[in-house]
Specification:
3 copies of one chain form a homotrimer.
Chain A lengths: L2 H23 L4 H23 L10 H16 L1 H6 L1 H25 L4 H22 L5 H4 L4 H16 L4 H21 L13 H8 L1
Chain lengths: ~210, ~210, ~210
């Protein structure tokens, strides 16, 4: 098991818990919970694999991943009352998930021989797309449009990854540091309510959009 | 023409009729009807092919399938008043469709050398995903969240398939019997209003979710 | 750079501008604008590549395309007040986009050795699917259901392509003429408010559907 696989597994756990908690708070039935946890967790990697042409897509040949998600759903279910009380848990698991998945996506892009910009995009897709499908399925505004420092944190972390690589840092350090960069930016953005500069002046931006939908 | 191809064709017919009837009841125009019938019918298989890496996806090299869907749309259109009166027709065609497609998906998973759990998942995707895209396109709650003994019937049929295979039944019997298992469970679930046990106590479950969306 | 690549680039520009304008009028933030422009522009081609099995999908190995979209977003942003005043600009760029993309899709289908019907379908998908994802993301009725002479124009242009090819016209003329056929039909349809014949009698059709959604 190399570092990518370990990070991928940790990301899977974080997103499976985050997905299951989201499904609980929507009061979906047992089957709906498993689907939402699975989609949140494996959706981004699936799109990444389809786009770069890994076949069959990773989770199909990786039963550990499938078992991990199922076990996470059961554990999350048992501790749901406790987890849902700590409202911030959902958010924190999600932040850890995007941090780990971003860098997994970037590394797979590099292995496929893609341009750094495309690698970062692939990192973003791996990290954010599971949440986007989840939101489309439960009929909410996709997460990337709601919280503007979400995908931005992934792009930032992807940039940090290539920067550290360029200054000659060893790869086993580059991975965790750039994953932490994503998580830190996401957490700081939520704590301090960071917003991207609005292109429409004061009144506009994300809030304006939310009411329009 | 082997048994998979025959079953696939029958499933295509069942879903094309079911999709066209759904589009009629939404009063879509001629073009919308063809798209919805096509998506309902070929959507699940398309995702299955993309996930396991069949290229190009089956319907692109199988004109019979395309002609079948178009002919079904025309025939369904001619008899629409009669078919829509029998409200249960739509449901029955859909049940037959998921029964046949589930087992087609399972068999393709086996041919790709995947784990039985993944094969059953692939059967579910083949059977349910066409309906999910149809529902997203016409802006309804995806079918797998509305009717909880829907995907469950597919999983049950997939289980029956591997069980019968394990006890040594001949493959030409395993296929129709497990397809009938899916159809029977789906029909019985609707007739007797089966529900998955709610994880939220009495008040919750599918109904609670429907009003939330 | 051959004719397909040139046409693809022009289509990319047209759709990137059209997507960015749509995002401005929805008041999305800077990040949302780039995503919508990118999805509108590259979404159709991405699905086409996935369906026929090009791997990795084209835009991943074509940085020119990525830069083009980003430059278009910036230029569109600078001239947005001026462009949004001319309401018809958005529509015209969209019409040019579907014209060019339809024929790019048809040609890629031919190169993959697919049946003419499938090639035309592929042209439609390339042209329309970017707009469909855009509409799903911003929570609108997908464009192919709203405007019934939209995909129809693509099908018409695809038919013109094969007709001209059959009568022996040189390929370098077939491409632009059939692209213009799509654009002309789309523009004429909007100007003269063409509708597909409704299968439900006078009251029905697209308008009936719009109010139902």
């Amino acid at each position: 098991m190399n570092i990518i696989e370990i990070m991928d597994l940790l990301g899977t756990i974080a997103f499976a818990v985050s997905g299951a908690l989201a499904a609980f708070s929507k009061r979906l039935d047992a089957f709906g919970i498993v689907i939402i946890a699975f989609v949140t967790s494996a959706g981004g990697g699936t799109l990444r694999d389809i786009l770069i042409g890994v076949k069959p897509v990773s989770w199909m040949t990786n039963m550990n991943l499938v078992y991990t998600i199922l076990i996470c759903v059961v554990i999350t279910f048992i501790f749901r009352t406790w987890l849902l009380k700590l409202r911030k848990t959902l958010f924190l698991f999600d932040a850890i998930g995007i941090g780990l998945y971003t860098i997994v996506g970037v590394e797979m892009g590099i292995q496929t021989g893609l341009h750094p910009f495309i690698c970062i995009t692939l990192g973003c897709i791996t990290a954010c797309f599971g949440g986007v499908i989840r939101d489309i399925l439960v009929n909410e505004i996709p997460v990337i449009f709601r919280k503007n420092v979400y995908a931005t944190a992934c792009i930032f972390g992807g940039g940090v990854y290539f920067l550290l690589l360029k200054v000659g840092m060893l790869e086993q350090f580059v991975f965790p540091i750039s994953a932490i960069a994503v998580i830190a930016m996401r957490v700081l953005a939520v704590v301090f309510k960071w917003q991207l500069p609005s292109p429409y002046g004061k009144a506009g931006g994300a809030q304006g959009m939310q009411t329009r939908f």
